[in-house]
Amino acid sequence: MKLIKGIILVIILLFMLIMGIAVPLAYIGTAVFLLGLYLSKQKNKGNIIVKKPGLVTAAGVILFLILGLTFVDSTETADTNNSKQLASTAEQKDAAEKEAAEKAKKIEAKKVKAEAERLEKEKQETEQKAKEEQANKLGLELVTIKRVVDGDTFVTSDDRKIRLVGVNTPESTTKVEEYGKEASNYTTSKLEGKQVYLQKDVSDKDRYARYLRIVWIDIPTNDMDENEIRTKMFNADLVLNGYAEPSTYPPDVKYSDSFVKFAREAREQNTGLWAFGAEGTTKGDLDSKTIASSSNTTASSSNSTNNNTNSSTSSNTNHSTAVPSSSGSESYKNCTELRKVYPNGVAADHPAYESKHDRDKDNWACER
After folding, report:
1. Contact (Cβ atoms closer than 8 angstroms) between residue 156 and residue 196
2. pLDDT given at position 161
3. Is the peptide bond before 24 cis (omega within 30 degrees of 0)?
4. Which of 109-123, 277-291, 298-312 is predicted with the least confidence, judged by mean pLDDT?
5. Domain limits of the chain?
6. Does 307 score more than 60 pLDDT?
7. Which chain positions lie within coiled-coil regions (predicted)?
8. Taking all residues of the chain, what is their mean pLDDT, rounded to a whole number?
């Protein structure tokens, strides 16, 4: 029995010594335990210091366990707190890194945007400079349209009255012609309050002191390119959409060929004013001889008399210029001479029209 008791005590002592390494504070309980063993041995020798030394021994074991467990719990709590603190620190670090990354990303995006805006601004400035140079090259003048008078006349912001060159829309003011209001409304919707480019052909003003101009909605790369004339010139737009007829008055004939071509296209499709008949609704280059038969008869008679009277003068000038008559008509020796002044020929109602030049009898003399 003593042997078993001794083995148990040794085991308990070894446990306490080993555990004390991890929890040094528990050695206090180990000391009390050893004290209890000492007191028990003294009691066995008859030297009774404490009546119940076993209680001291038991107290040492209990104290050891209490101190050991308390320290372990504190250690675990500290470890837990440290772990939480470390986790919190890691989260804070991740959050800070994420915030810094987002901030850097925003700064970079801002830089990219600023650079893109700078490049776009430079591009626009370059394009604007190129447009201004092209406008100067073509003699274009940028103006703002203050008010539209009718289909082919408007007033600019500096109060100049502009008459479109080479086209004629039906009247819609003091005299009203069929489709005149539609033409006026169309021009108003397209031009009033807008900025456009004006281009002079040859003449500066007409007899009514109106400035004679071509109107470009946008600056053309080549002002003689048919596609650009169709898409960017307002004079051509009116003819193509049947709001105007071509009306040629030399020397402003730069675009007369194009206007006549566009008018024929519109007439074939019965577009706009051409829906009212092959003559349209106002005066123009495509009008037939029947509209001006009486005036042409007078003009032919006058031309014949005038040609005889001025034959010597005509021969001296090689007929390179027209011979005027009292009625204001013109006479040319042949189509070659006439085309020097009117490259596209003339319609039956034109002062220079003579039946001898209209070989195909289509009421258009010397057409190409």
Report:
1. no
2. 98
3. no
4. 298-312
5. 2-77, 102-137, 139-276, 289-365
6. no
7. 86-143
8. 83
CATH 2.40.50.90 fits 139-276, yes or no: yes
In terms of Cα–Cα distance, which of 27, 96, 35 is closest to 63? Answer: 27
Query: Using alpha carbons only, what angle is made at residue 208 by residues 202 and 211, rounded to the nearest 5 degrees?
Result: 40
Position 218, amino acid:
D
Torsional sign, CA 292, 238, 241, 253: positive
Mean pLDDT of 276-299: 69
Confidence of residue 89 (pLDDT cuts 50, 70, 90): confident
Q: Which residues contact 220 (CB under 8 A, 6 or more apart)?
A: 138, 228, 229, 232, 233
